[in-house]
UniProtKB/TrEMBL annotation:
Transmembrane segments: none
Identification of the protein by name: DNTP triphosphohydrolase
Record lineage: Bacteria, Pseudomonadati, Bacteroidota, Cytophagia, Cytophagales
PANTHER family per the UniProt record, alphabetical: DEOXYGUANOSINETRIPHOSPHATE TRIPHOSPHOHYDROLASE, DEOXYNUCLEOSIDE TRIPHOSPHATE TRIPHOSPHOHYDROLASE
Domain HD: 64-251
Length: 450
């Protein structure tokens, strides 16, 4: 059974060092995590990455950046409140100089990074990258050069695993604290699992690629993360709070955005949020607010507050079962408002996620990412494999890669998996607008400065 003192082991992740000494700072470790994330380039790039509505024209519609900040805010409240419960239940935590604010800061920092691995154009971008290797001739051509496990990774791009890869990168990783990194990992399983347990929420997706398996083993050893029967790791309990913060925010705020854009009526939105508020919903008081924006804002705030209270209560009830691995569900699936959230999700799928503007821009995203992968993959293949086809156009294309991109040592006798991963790092790290502009230029649709 896992224990909290081990799960909150101080220190920072570094694959080269077994365990680092803890520095005395004016800021706690998770507070330093939060600051490192905020000032990092991958986090800044979220300001121009799709949340639901790709390349939004409306200032009030959320991007990945605003969404991540809101999830972090909710996560901090969840973590701090749950932390007070844990410190009362486990007095040794206070002796170990753990505070409820520290636990809130861990959840806040992990929540801040929860979408950091997502590519341009939202979930459509994940599918577009995967489909390139599955179906495009210049994607399929690499299959014979890599191992079956590596090929499976290339054909299954996963934003959560990409985020873990970015955070633990030996060159550009943020060296976050152990607990923050584990709380970030909602899906602590490898990409290759013989048979995943579909009853376990933590095995719904995978959280790290095959070449990060040793990194996660190191993290699990430090924190005492145990394994389930099929060998997958159990979730760090704070990951349940990070997941809940995300579930709460996207459910409520995507609905608010849909209403703002006219995809969902105000009456429908009020009715759904009233299901969460129950007897706290006061139609007469709501009418004292004059504008739709004001009405949505007060309802959103009250609904999120209600969901936070219900989620913390569920965490406290299930905490011991999380430590033993008996509990492995989304907390928002077992709270009193679970049905209301399910109704919001059903309507959002029908009227928001499958709305014409969203689908049209997702379709454009498929074209952009496939096009970028095609030109770069083709040029790399010609340079190292089909060398007789290596052209001046290929040379020009490769000069557009980042300066640090490794263009040496990848002859036909060398496994190109790491090179392809770095190419995917480059393209998945782009903002929506940068990807679109670069696509236009490499395809000759627009010239630089045009």
């Amino acid at each position: 059974m896992m224990n909290w003192e081990k799960l909150l082991t101080p220190g920072r992740f570094d694959p080269k060092v077994k365990q680092q000494p803890v520095e005395n700072q004016f800021r706690s470790e998770p507070e330093r995590d939060y600051d490192r994330i905020v000032f990092s380039a991958p986090f800044r790039n979220l300001q121009d990455k799709t949340q639901v509505f790709p390349l939004p024209d409306n200032d009030f519609v959320h991007t990945r950046l605003t969404h991540s900040l809101e999830v972090s805010s909710v996560g901090r409240t969840l973590g701090k409140t749950a932390g007070e419960f844990l410190l009362n239940k486990y007095p040794n935590l206070e002796k170990a100089q753990v505070s409820s604010s520290d636990i809130g800061a861990i959840v806040a920092a992990a929540a801040l990074t929860h979408d950091i691995g997502n590519p341009p154009f939202g979930h459509a971008g994940e599918t577009a990258i995967s489909d390139f290797f599955k179906f495009h001739p210049y994607g399929q051509i690499w299959q014979r050069e890599v191992t079956p496990e590596e090929w499976a990774d290339l054909c299954n791009f996963e934003g959560n695993a990409q985020g873990f890869r970015m955070l633990v990168s030996k060159n550009n990783g943020l060296k976050l604290s152990f607990a923050t990194l584990a709380a970030f990992t909602k899906y602590p399983r490898a990409s290759q699992v013989f048979e995943r347990d579909q009853r376990r929420r933590s095995q719904k997706k995978f959280g790290y690629y095959s070449d990060q398996a040793e990194d996660f083993r190191h993290l699990g050893e430090i924190l005492g993360l145990e394994k389930s029967e099929n060998g997958c790791y159990l979730r760090h309990p704070l990951a349940f709070l990070v997941e809940a913060a995300d579930d709460i925010c996207y459910s409520i705020i995507d609905l608010e955005d849909g209403c703002t854009l006219g995809l969902v009526t105000l009456e429908e939105t009020i009715g759904l949020l009233a299901m969460i508020l129950k007897d706290r919903f006061d139609p007469a008081k709501l009418e004292t607010y004059q504008t739709q924006t004001q009405k949505l804002a007060i309802l959103r705030a009250m609904a999120i507050n209600q969901l936070i209270q219900e989620t913390v209560a569920a965490f406290e009830e299930q905490e011991e079962k999380m430590l033993s691995g008996e509990f492995d569900q989304a907390l928002t699936d077992i709270i009193p408002s679970a049905q209301a959230l399910a109704d919001i999700s059903e309507l959002s799928v029908k009227k928001i996620y499958r709305s014409k503007p969203v689908l049209e821009k997702e379709a454009a995203g498929f074209q952009v990412l496939e096009g970028l992968l095609e030109v770069f993959s083709k040029a790399l293949n010609h340079k190292f494999y089909q060398t007789d086809l290596y052209s001046g156009q290929d040379r020009s294309i490769l000069r557009l890669l980042p300066e640090e991109f490794p263009l040496e040592g990848w002859d036909s006798g060398v496994n190109p998996y790491q090179m392809l991963r770095i190419l995917m790092d480059f393209i998945s790290g782009m903002t929506d607008k940068y990807a679109l502009n670069l696509y236009r230029r490499v395809k000759g649709i627009a010239l630089p400065g045009a």
